[in-house]
Design goal:
Layout lengths: L6 H12 L6 E9 L6 E9 L2 E4 L9 E3 L4 E4 L1 E6 L8 H8 L4 E6 L2 H7 L2 H10 L5 E6 L17 H5 L7 E7 L2 H5 L3 H9 L4 E4 L6 H9 L4 E2 L5 H9 L3 E5 L7 H4 L11 E4 L5 H6 L3 H10 L4 H8 L1 H6 L16 E6 L4 E7 L2 E2 L2 H5 L31 E5 L8 E5 L3 E2 L2 E2 L7 E7 L8 E7 L7 E4 L8 E5 L2 H14 L2 E6 L2 E7 L11 H17 L7 H7 L8 E4 L2 E4 L4 E2 L2
Helix pairs in contact: 12-13
Length: 570
């Protein structure tokens, strides 16, 4: 949704675009990367307020930015992300990501909404009114995501309707309950009906064939859970826009890169979904995706289209995505096109710098004191033995899809034991919303853990406490420490807390600057490695173990979940 402007403002744009009046701002001497022909053309860019009014010409203004022959490309659009997964507030996310060229971010406050309900929408929309980047909101469609877990809230169609026409709202966020859509569940249909004339995001891992047709027939238009080029090709052929994802855990870029060509670029866009400040500092954000895709052989024209114009078109943001008169002045100046070396960023006609960030009106955090779990003891993590093989969650590094393994584990005194020789340790989910005292138990393969425990209050999507450990006593200490610090990440060994990061805002976000959060993640990684953990992102990998909408075997506070059957494992 774009704002309406009056005749005086329109007249000013016309005059400045024609050159009969001085522009408000001119970026001089750039080489404009043409998203139509892929040429680089020397030009000025004239800006009136927050809108581009002139290209392919020379302009005058009292205010100029010296382009110095740098390359101008449209601001990047992250088409799907959860700000909460950056572990910082929307204001700190703004500071962290905008210098990487991301001038528009489309977020789903699904994580916070599962903890505090529609108060998450109020908070994010208030922040979005004040961020320097254009932060847009998709309203969370599945709170809770399934009936097989305990969430902190429930959001129905009537709750969503109250926010539908907010100027920062695009539509309905990832509809992850695709079995409910295919079964024409009344609750699912009610939400889709409310947004039937708006954008609806999809969430359909491995959905193919006629079932995919039925899902798309409901009016769902995008998907970020596509993990193979073959799957992506079927989806774009059927009119879906596939969002190529490269997050801190979910890494699909290499698998999908071969599909991105100039011909297919109108049907592909880029997203990060979940990316933390340390990865952003070490690699980048969408700029990292752009240079990686180009290094893999994708044509720059196709990649920059996907990062801007195609993304804007897919989400109805027709006022941006290309550097052209009448479009929003979101511009990235690059020192190198193929390396996506961001030099300066202009967001809504404003040159991005620290002074600009300091001018924002801040919003007080919400969701404090949300971790309401009771104190747990080591004996609560005992798993009584049953006959036969044990179903074990198999972690796949860099994927949120897990395997459903069937392994023989040792038994001692009637209690099922971990087996370090098979790389199998315990996993548990402890309810933390104060609704019940559930604890779900299981085993997980693939962490490499030899001792201790790691725990997280970031546990998609209901964000109960998830703990993985080789010791019941250390698991209990880790869970109780999270209760004390009101959420975050904890590493414990030999009965001692070795590293922690407090996330007191809904148990998901820090109230500290992103630099402090970034710097705290390295000691956490080191402490996890000291336990023997071999996963590059162990905390986010833990966070996705309780996600019962992603195949194949997951765990919630109810117990193990067979996602393919959408039922508990007994």
């Amino acid at each position: 949704m774009t704002r309406q402007i009056d005749a005086t403002a329109i007249a000013a744009r016309i005059a400045q675009g024609r050159g009969s009046a001085s522009a408000d701002l001119v970026i001089t001497d750039v080489r404009l990367f043409d998203l139509v022909t892929s040429t680089l053309t020397p030009t000025d860019i004239a800006i009136c307020g927050d809108t581009i009014v002139g290209t392919y010409g020379r302009y005058r203004s009292a205010r100029t930015i010296d382009g110095r022959g740098r390359i101008a490309v449209p601001g990047f659009i992250d088409t799907h992300l959860h700000v909460e997964s950056s572990l910082v507030t929307p204001f700190e996310f703004d500071r962290c990501v905008l210098p990487h060229g991301v001038t528009t971010a489309i977020c789903d406050p699904h994580e916070m909404a599962n903890v505090i309900g529609t108060a998450a929408f109020d908070y994010f929309l208030s922040c979005a009114e004040r961020t320097i980047m254009d932060l847009r909101v998709q309203l969370s469609s599945c709170v809770p995501a399934t009936h097989l877990e305990t969430a902190g809230a429930r959001i129905e169609a009537a709750d969503l309707l109250r926010y539908r026409d907010h100027r920062k709202v695009i539509g309905l966020a990832e509809f992850m309950n695709f079995p409910g859509v295919l079964a024409a569940d009344p609750g699912c249909l009610a939400k889709i009906e409310v947004f039937s004339n708006r954008h609806i995001d999809g969430h359909a891992p491995l959905l193919r064939g006629l079932d995919l047709n039925g899902y798309l027939a409901a009016g769902i238009r995008t998907d970020h859970e596509t993990t193979s080029a073959d799957e992506a090709l079927e989806k774009i052929r059927k009119g879906m826009t596939v969002l190529i994802r490269e997050g801190s855990v979910s890494k699909d870029l290499h698998a999908l890169a071969s599909l991105l060509t100039v011909a297919t670029s109108p049907f592909l866009a880029l997203c990060t979904d979940d990316r933390n400040p340390l990865d952003i500092a070490e690699e980048g954000h969408l700029d990292f995706m752009i240079r990686t895709l180009i290094s893999l052989g994708c044509e720059p024209l196709a990649v920059y289209r996907a990062a801007s114009f195609s993304a804007a078109q897919a989400f109805g943001l027709t006022d941006r995505g290309i550097i052209a008169p009448g479009k929003r002045a979101d511009i990235v100046l690059l020192d190198d096109l193929e390396a996506c070396a961001v030099s300066d960023v202009i967001s809504g006609g404003r040159l991005v710098n620290e002074t600009l960030f300091q001018s924002r009106e801040m919003i007080a955090p919400v969701g404090l004191n949300s971790v309401k779990s009771r104190v747990v003891s080591a004996d609560q993590f005992r798993i009584e033995a049953t006959s036969g093989e044990t179903r074990v969650i198999g972690v796949i590094p860099g994927r949120i899809i897990t395997e459903d393994l069937h392994l023989t584990l040792p038994v001692r005194d009637g209690v099922r034991q971990i087996d370090l020789g098979q790389d199998v340790v315990k996993v548990a989910v402890v309810a933390r919303h104060g609704i019940n005292d559930n604890i779900g138990f299981g085993f997980v393969h693939g962490f490499g853990m030899k001792r201790g425990a790691i725990a997280s209050s970031v546990g998609h999507d209901s964000h109960n406490i998830c703990v993985v450990g080789a010791s019941d006593a250390n698991m209990a200490i880790a869970v109780n420490r999270l209760r004390d610090i009101q959420g975050g990440f904890v590493v414990v060994s030999d009965g001692v807390v070795r590293a922690e990061l407090a996330l007191p805002i809904a148990g998901l976000m820090s109230d500290r600057p992103y630099e402090e959060v970034r710097d705290a993640l390295n000691p956490l990684r080191d402490a996890a490695k000291a336990l023997g953990v071999t996963l590059p992102e162990p905390f986010l990998q833990v966070a996705f173990l309780p996600l019962p909408v992603i195949p194949h075997l997951k765990i919630t506070d109810y117990g193990l979940v067979d996602v393919n059957r959408m039922e508990l494992v007994h």
